[in-house]
Amino acid sequence: MRTTDTETGAGTGADPKAADPKADAAAPDNAADSASPDSAPADAASDEARLTREAESQLSSLSTAPGEERLNVPSIGLVGWLRWFWRQLTSMRVALILLFLLSLAAIPGSVVPQKAVDSVKVEEFQKKHDVLSPVYEKLQLFDVYTSVWFSAIYILLFVSLAGCIVPRTWQFVGQLRSRPPRAPRRLERMPAYTTWRTETDPDEVLGRAGRLLGRRRFRVDREGDAVASEKGYLREAGNLLFHIALIVLLLAFAAGQLWKSDGGKLIIKGDGFSNTLTQYDDFKSGSLFDPDDLDSFGFSLRDFHASYEESGPQKGTARDFRAGVSYWQGPGGKEKQGSIEVNHPLEVGDSKVFLNGNGYAPVISVKDGKGRTAYRGPVAFLPQDGNLTSSGVLKVTDYRDAKGRKDQLGFQGFFVPTFGGSGAGTMFSQSPSLKYPVLFLTAYHGDLGLDYGAAQSVYQLDTKRMKQFKKDDGSPLAKKILPGETMELPDGGGELKFEGVRQWAQFQIVHQVGEGWALGGALAAIGGLAGSLFIQRRRVWVRAVAGPDGLTVVEMAGLGRSESARLPEELGDLAYALQDGAPPAEDADQQDAHQDDADRPPPADAADADSKADAADADAKADAADADAHSDAHADEPADNDEESAETSPRGERQ
């Protein structure tokens, strides 16, 4: 390499002394004298650095390791990242992941009590779980279906489905507008294939094939010597229908949550209801609900019928619930008669009235210390078990004691429609039927707490600021009352009378939008899924060309988008149907021979005998000729056999 460097330096006019170390050693004294003593170490260091760089360059030229040079790749940019994110979001993989996440997100809504469904259960859960409740509150587990994270999954799934459907729809429209693909050159390579030869003209064969495939609902296109057809486009249409139906379901579900209203009302027999917000016992609605969206109607409870099993292992089980109502629609609407049963609601406009429960309301009258009626009417008691053992509360605000002082009364207790008797030792009802009604009450007086602004339940009594009435012996006042009996208050404070019993029914009034769309979407999704699973897209080609022998060679082949055992069978059916107009050549010859035999007149008896005799003579002559030929053939065989046997004996010795 030194020689190369020297030659290079000479060729370029460089100083030979700088290239040859020997030249440096033999340099004149004046050159050494011209260099200062301080520059000698610097020159040595520069020479060492130069030699090091040359060695590294030589090593790098001999190495096969990848270089450290960076590739000049342009940055993807914001638009590129957005495009990548859109492609990922609209992929089928991400859509399936979002569906899975949505199903997982719905689990807490089924396990954890929801405020929109039952706020009382939420309060009870929070009291029992003081540690988990704050965590659940921050995670919005008490409002799962309106939470931020559930809405995010919901919206992303909606966008993913929409982004997946739009391009596939345009692609499918393009496929419908395009012609079926033309026939391949080698049809015999297709999974299903058949061929035959016929005397029918190729044009006629192709014409018959096109008409046959058209009757079988194939899209047909003829080009050159072949007919191309395709069928099964409903498979992709079913796939698109399924995805569109999912979007419809999502929209219907969203509309139902945003514009819905749901309220309950307990109505005692003889009372009525008007569909306004102030008439509901409890009411909840969607975030976009407007009170003006409520349908204008009302109804009254005329009668209520309930029947139960009276004996056997199913004793007490409900058999029938039916509420007879009178309802009207719109201001000044004509009153109509109707019936509401379990799972058979009353439909008025866009609202439905469901029957949810029933119970009893004892009719109670209360007189104050002055003998004036302070209260009279039915009081609904809420069932506590299947036999309608019920608890209830009566609050009397307009009451004065024997001295005329204003006070408030409160009664709470139990009602049983069928009392088991004193010997039963229990206050629980023995049957839900109204056979032996008994009312058991305790009485309080004082401040009911209605003037403090806080809402109270009509079915609960707050006794913090009240005192219980006492008997003369100092025991709490409590009494079991039968219909028609009274309960006397101490110190001439008045009396309470149990006058009778009336029935009540619990109704749920639901205004739900999008139910029809949801039902249609569900049915469409089922139909689309069935089409995408059971319909196979397949193609069939028919080629007919004239052969060298003058016969027409017909080829049929089929190809499916997926493996199916029905494709060969379908191709066989098509080939069999096409052979009615283009029969195979062998079958045509046989038909002509049979036709000639049929047209030939039958022979006479003498002719039959002569023909049989001639046939017998011909057979005899043929047998004789065969025998002669056979004997001649065997006459030549010994020489050959001898020639062969002359070579070796069976033992390998020459004879």
TrEMBL record:
Record keywords, A-Z: Cytochrome c-type biogenesis, Membrane, Transmembrane, Transmembrane helix
Q: Which InterPro entries match?
A: Cyt_c_bgen_Ccs1/CcsB/ResB, ResB-like_domain
Q: Name one Pfam family in it.
A: ResB
Instruction: Determine the domain of life of the protein's source.
Output: Bacteria
Region (Disordered), start-end ranges = 1-64, 580-655
- Compositional bias, Basic and acidic residues, is annotated for 47-56, 591-602, 609-637
Question: Record keywords: Transmembrane included?
Answer: yes
Q: Where is the ResB-like domain?
A: 92-571
Q: Where is the composition biased (Low complexity)?
A: 6-16, 24-44
Location(s) in or outside the cell: Membrane
* TM helices/strands, residue ranges: 94-112, 148-170, 240-259, 516-535
What is this entry's stated membrane topology? Multi-pass membrane protein
| Major localisation | membrane
Q: What is this protein called?
A: Cytochrome c biogenesis protein ResB
